[in-house]
Amino acid sequence: MQPTTALRARAGGLKAGGLSGPTLPLRATSTAAASRLRSGACIGVGAPVWGSSSTPGPGGAAVGRVRPTTRGTVPPGAVANPDAPSQVAEKSFQLRNGANVWLTLGTTDSGDQSLRMVTDLDAGKLLLHWGVEGGKDYKGGWRLPGDGVRPAGTVAYKDRALQSPWKRGSDDGRLEITIELKGDEASDVFNFVLKDEATNSWYDNAGSNFAISLRPGHGGSMTVDEDNSEEEDVVLPKELCDKWAWFRWDSEGRQQGDAEQSTRQYDEGVIQIKTLLAAGRSMDELWQVANGAANYSEFCKAHLKGYAPAKQPEQKQPEQKQEQKQPEQKQEQKAPAAQKTDEKKKAPPGPPADLGKPLDNKRARNPLDLIKRAHSDAPKLSEGSKKVELPLDFLAKRFAEDPTTKWKRRFGMGGKSELLAVVRHENESQPVRVDIFTDLADKAVVHWGINKPGTRKWSVPPEEFWPEGTDIGGHTACDTKLLDCVDDECDVEISGSKVPLQRVTIWLPPDHTVASLSFVLRSADSTMWWKDAGKDFFVPVPGKFVTDVPADKKEAELPDRLTKTIVEAENSSAWTLMHRFNKAADVLSEVLNGYYEELPRMDAMAYVYVWLRYSAIRQLTWQRNYNTQPRILSAAQERLTNAIASAHSKTSGEAQEWVRTMLATVGRGGDGQKIRDEILQIMHRNHVSEAKGHWMEQWHQKLHNNTTPDDVPICAAYIAFLEGGGNNGAYWSVLSDAGLTRERLEGFDRPLTHEPQTYDKAGQLIPEFKNYLKILKAVHSGADMQASAAAAGNRIPDGARGYLGYVMSHLGSSQILPLMEAAVEARSELAPVLNGNRELLYLDLALEDQVRQAAERGVSAAGFGAAAFMKPLLQNLCLSLGDNEELCYCLKTWEELPASVRSGGRLNKEDALQAVAVVNRIRRAISEVSDRIVTRIGAQSKAMGDACGADNWASELFAEEVVRGGPAFAVSLVISSVEPVLRNAAALGAWQVISPNPATGVVVVVSGLDVVQDKTYTVPTVLIAEQVTGEEEIPEGCIAVLTPDAPDVLSHVSVRARNMKVLFATCHDDGPLNDIRAMAGKTLHFTTTASGSVSFAEAQAGELDAEKTKQDTAKSGLNLKISVPTWPGKWAVSMDEYKQGVCGAKSNNLAGLRGRLPPNIKLPASVTLPFGCYEQVLDMSENSKIKSELKALVSRLNAKPKQSLLASMASLVSMDNVALDGDGLDRPVDATDVLAQCRALAMQVAVPDTVRDQLGEAMKAAGIPLPNSAQRWSQAMEALKGVWASKYNDRAYYSLRKVNLNFDDVRMAVLVQGVVPAKYAFVIHTKNPSNNDENEVFCELVQGLGESLVSGMIPGSAIAFKARKDALDAPEVLCYASKSEGMFVPESLIFRSDSNGEDLEGYAGAGLYESITMDTTVTRRVDYMDDKLVQDPAYRTFILSEICKVGYAIEQALGSAQDIEGVVGEDNTITIVQTRPQV
C-alpha cells in the first residue's frame, strides 16, 4: 500500500465551484488491519467518520472508526449478476450543526459506480453541490458529468459545478439522492458540499470540500481497496499539529529562537503525537490536550515514556555551559554576518517566491461577520467638529484683523486657561504697545525683563517702561500685577456669561532699543509659576534695531489646542522618552474625558498617534538634559501602553483604529531594571572591564543612565559582530539597516565613540547577548512576534493557537500563502477578545506585521499567482480598520469569483470581466483608506513635525509613509500584479473611450474637474483630471478630458462631452497617463483608434491655431435661445393635456409613447405641474420678500463677467470682484455661495393650498396613490420645492452661462409619478455613444434607483452592455458593475425636473436639474457578484436582451435615436420612466 498523500490541490469549490482544499485521506482497510504510523503528515480536520460495517446506512445508531464492507466474492449458491456491485463501502459524515450524512458507494466489476446518499439534515430545499475528478477526456479541475447521469432537476452552477436537489425517501422521510456514474462517466474522486437554498446555508468540510476517492490510489476520504495490508496510512490533522506545537512551546518557557529552531521544535511535536498514537492513545485524547481540556505536561508525563518537562532557561546564564563546550564548532558553522550581507548584495536574483499551498484547516467565515459595529457603550464618534468657544478666541480673531498687529501668540497655561501676547505698532513715530491677556481665575503677576538685540539675557526695564503696579523683581527683572480688564476691549461673553480677563499693557517709546521681552507668570501668593513648556515666554518687538518682526509660525500653523499642548511639551528644556510617555498617557486621559471637545475623537487619537510615531522614528529627541533609569522608563512605557489599551476599550470605529496603531510605536515596558542589571552581570561573568575607554563600557553607561529603543539594534549589531568573528562591517551593516548612523551614536548623552571589540571568550558572549536582546525587546519592542506570543500566554483563545503555532514555526518561510493565511486566521480568532487587552493587541500587531513581511517577500515575484494572496490580505485589512464595512464587502465579492481567478489560474473572458469589476471596487476602497489617512493626518503631521523640528523629508512624507506601512499597501501590490493580466484576459485595453473625438490642445493637470468647471480657457486645453464624478460641467475652451477615474458612460458629464464634441476617455493604466502628465504645458494632438485606444503626439506648428479656429466656428454657429413660456393657468395637467409650451420633453415624450409600444413595456401614470408654476407662486404676496431677495442675487450673478484662465488662476475660490447687495461686507462673493442662497430661499417659498388640491385631484384621476396624511403632503411639497430650487444648481448655471443663456429664463415643469421599488434601473442609448454606431444599442444597468447611474453620486462602473439591432437576443457584456452602493427608496412619489432648458437642439441639458423622491433616498451596500444577473448566465441574457429590445422599440416608435431611462421590477417587467432624443 502506498502512503497517502497529505495534500492534494483541488480545483473548484464551495459556491464558486468549491473551496480549494485537500481530499480527506483516511484509507479504507480490512477489519484485520492494524493502525500504524507512517507518514506523519498533517492535514485539515473535519474528516468524515467511518460507519460500522454492521450498521450500514442511516439506520445504524453507532458511528465508529472503521471500515467499509468489501465484497470481493459471490456467496455460494448465488448467481453472479454482472451489474451488481462487487464492492460496497459505507461512510458517515457529521455536519457542523450535528446532522449526519450517510454515503454508500457501490462499484461493479465493469467499473460502473453508484453513490447513494441519505441525510437527516432538516433543510428547506437541500442541494448537492458537486463535481468529479477523472473520467474520459479529463483535463483537470472539477468535471461536470453529462446529462445522462445527472439526477432529475440538476442545474449547472456557473459552469463550474452541478447542483442536484435531494428528494424525500419513501420509508423514513429522510432526504436522499442517488448518482450513477457508468461507462465513461466513472471517475476517480467525487467532490461535494451541501447547500440549503432556503436559508442560503452551506455545509462543508471545515472550509473545504468533501472529497471521496472512488478508485484505489486517488487519495479521497473514502477508498474502496481490497489490499488488506497490515499497515494503514494515518495522516495527522494540521490543526492538531499546530496546537500541539503551541502547547509544547508554551510548556518549555516560550523560548525565542530563529525560524530554523522553530521548525525543529514543530517537527519534534509531530513526533510526540505519532509516538503517543503508537502507544495506544486515541485521537480524541490528543484533541482534549490540544483544545486545553487536558494539561499538556501532565498528559505527556503519564503517557509518553521518558518525557521530562524542559528546564526553564536561566536568565543570567542561558546555555552557557553548552557554549563553553563547543564554542569553536558553533563559530565554524556560522559564516560571518558581514560576509553573508556581501554575498546577498553580489548574488543574482533568486528564483520566484514559492507561494505554497493554502492552509487546509481554515474556518469558513462569512466576510460580513467581520464588519465592526460601534460598541453601544462607546462614546458616539462625530465626523464634525464641535466648536468650543474659548475666552481668548474673540481677542485673537480681532487682533488678527487689526492692521497694527505685528506679532501675536497664544500660550497654554494648564487646564483650559490661556495667555495671549500681542504686539501692536502703527508707525515709526508711535510707541510700541505690548499686551498680555489671560483668563486665569487666580490673581497673577508678570515677572519680566527686556532683551537687547542678539541675546536673551534678561535686563531690568527702564522705569519709563513700567506699567502701573510694577515693582523691582530682582537684579534683572520687574514684577507687574495683572489687572482686571474692564474696558470694551475685554468685553467677552461665553454662552451668555461674561468672562473676567486680566491684562498688563507695556508701552515702549518710539526710540527704544529693546529687541524682545521675556517673562514668566506667578500667582499672587507665589505658590504657582507658569512657563512656556519649561522656558521663558518670549515676545519680539519692533524698534530701532528690529524693524520687522516675523509672524509667529506656531500661532499660524497649530490651530488646535491638542497639537499646541504636544508642541509646548516637546519644547521643554528637560525632556526624555519617559517624560513623553507620561505626558501622552495624560493626554489620552484628557481626550477620553472630553477635555479637547472641539476635536472629533478620531482626530484627537490620530494626532496622538502622529506624535508617538514621530518619536518612534527618532524625529523627536529621546533625551535632553535629563537621564532616565531603565526601570523608570519601562514604568512610563507600561503606564502609557496600559492607557492605550484602556482607550482601545473605550473607543470604536476610526478612533479605535488610531488607538491600536499607537501601540506599534511604544514598547510594552515591564521589568526595565533587568536591562540595567543584566549588562553588569554579563560583564562580570565574562570579566569585561568597567574601566573607561572601550565600547562595552560606553554602552553600559548608556544603558545604565538612559536606555532607549536604539539599544535593540545596537545589541543585534554587536551579536552580528561577534558571530562574524569581530567583523566591524557586520556591526555597521545591522546599525545601518536600523537607521543608526555614527553621528547618532556619538550624539548620545552617553556617546558610543569606540568600535566594538572581541574578547577571549567571544563564543560565550553570543548566547549571553542573544538572551540580553530578548530582555531589550521585551521592554522596547512591543510588536515583536515571539515576545508578543510569550507575553500573551494563556490569554490566547484556543481557536488561535493552532494557527499561531504554524506562524511561530514558519517565521520568514518562503511558503508565503500558508504563512499569510495562518497569521490572518490567528488574527480572526483574536478579534472577538481583542478589545482593550494590551497583550493580545500587541500579538495582533505582530501578526499583522508578519502578513506585511510575507506580502513584501512574495507578491512581486508571484506574478498573476499573487491573486491567491488577495483573500488573506483583504481579510487582514478588514481586521485592522475601524470602519471596514466596504472592505468586508470587497472580500465577499472576491470570494464569489471563480476559483481560477482567486488562485491565479487560467482565465476565460467572462471570469476576467467579473474579476476586473471586483478589482476596481477593491482599488477604490483602498484609495478611500489612503485618502482618509492623508486627510486626517497629512496637514497635521506636517505642522507638528515642523513645529517640533523634525526633518523636512519626515514631515513632508509622513502621511504617505503611514499609508505605505499599513495593510492597505499590500493589497495595492496585489492589484498591480493581477490587474494587467485580468484586463488582458477580458480584452480590455488601457483606455475606455467615452466620447471619441480628435483633439489638439495644451495639457493641463488638475486635481478634479469640479475645480475648473467654471473656468474659461482662452486656448484649446486638454485636462488631465484626477477625479471626475460624473456630475460636473466641462469648462469652456476644454477640448479633451482624460482621467484615471471611471464615470459611467451615460453619466451627465459623459453625455455633455459627446454633445460638445469633446474627447473624453478613462485610462486604467498609469503608464500612458503618466507620460501625458509629464508633458504638461505642451501642445499634444490626440486621436482615438478603431480598437478603442487613445494615441497622442506632439502637435505640429499651426495645429493649435487650427483647433482654436474650429472651436470659434462651432461656437459662432451655436445660436441657442430659450423661449420663456407662460403659465397656462392650471397647477396640474394630465397626460392628455401635455403639449409644447405647457410642459417639457420628458412629459411630452411619455405621452407620445402611449399606444405605440408592445404590451410588455409599461408606462407609468403621470401628471405634471406645468411651466410657470414656480414663478406664479413667487408672485403671491406671501412670497414677495423672497422674490425681492432672489431678484437681487440673480441680477448680480447675471452681471458677472466670465472668468478667464488667468483670472481663475489668481482666485480659485472667488468668481469675480463684484460685491452682492445685501451681503453686508465689501468683499467679493463666491457665486457658489450665492447660488446656495438662492436655493435656500426657494425652499422657503410658501406653496398655496390650491396647488396641493389641484395636484391631488389630477393624481387621483391618473391612478397615482395620494399622500395619506398632512405630514406626507408636507413631504411631497418639500420634494416639489426641491425641484424648483434646482433651477439654481451650480452645474446648470455654469452650463447655460457657457452657451450665453440666461439661467433665470429657465422655467421648471415638474413631472409627478409613483415610485415602485425596482430591482434594477437602466439607461439606454439607442445609438452607441462610444463609437457613434447607429446599428448598436448601448445600455448601463444598476441595482436600485437610476440616480446612482446618472448623477455621479455613487462612484464605480455600472453593468454596461450592447447589442446589435439585428441580434438583440445576443447582448454582449462590456463590463460588470464595480459600484459599492445602490440608491433605494420605499414605495413613494418622485418629482422629476422637466424644464425648457433641457430640450434645446444641439444642447445637452439632461441632468442639469434634480429629480427628488418624496421619501428620503437611502444608500446601502450592494454585492453585484452575488446577484442572479451575474450568477445565472441564462437569466442575464434574458434581462439584458429584453432591455435592448425595449430601446429599439421606442426608437422605432419615435423615429429617432433615444436616451431612455427605465426600471426592471421584481417580476422582471420593464417600465419606462422617461425618454428624450439622444443628443
Write a concise synopsis of the structure shown.
The chain is α+β, with helices and mostly antiparallel strands.
What does this structure look like?
It is built from 46 helices and 49 strands. Helix 7 (337-346) packs across helix 18 (728-737), helix 11 (577-592) packs parallel to helix 13 and helix 25 (867-880) packs antiparallel against helix 26 (885-895). The protein has a seven-stranded mixed sheet. It is flat. With 1479 residues, it is an alpha+beta fold. The relative contact order is 0.06.
Structural descriptors:
single chain, 1479 residues, alpha+beta, 7-stranded mixed β-sheet, 46 helices, 37% helix, flat, disordered N terminus
The major β-sheet equals:
7 strands, mixed
Total number of helices: 46
Tell me the distance between the termini. 76 Å
Outline the low-pLDDT stretches. 1-82, 220-233, 312-353, 375-385, 1203-1227
Outline type: flat
- Per DSSP E runs of 2 or more residues, the count of β-strands stands at 49
Class from secondary-structure proportions: alpha+beta
Give the overall average pLDDT: 81
In which range does the helix fraction lie? 25-40%
Quaternary assembly: single chain
Beta-strand proportion: 15-25%
Radius of gyration: 39 Å
Strands of the biggest beta sheet: in what spatial order? 29-33-32-31-30-34-35
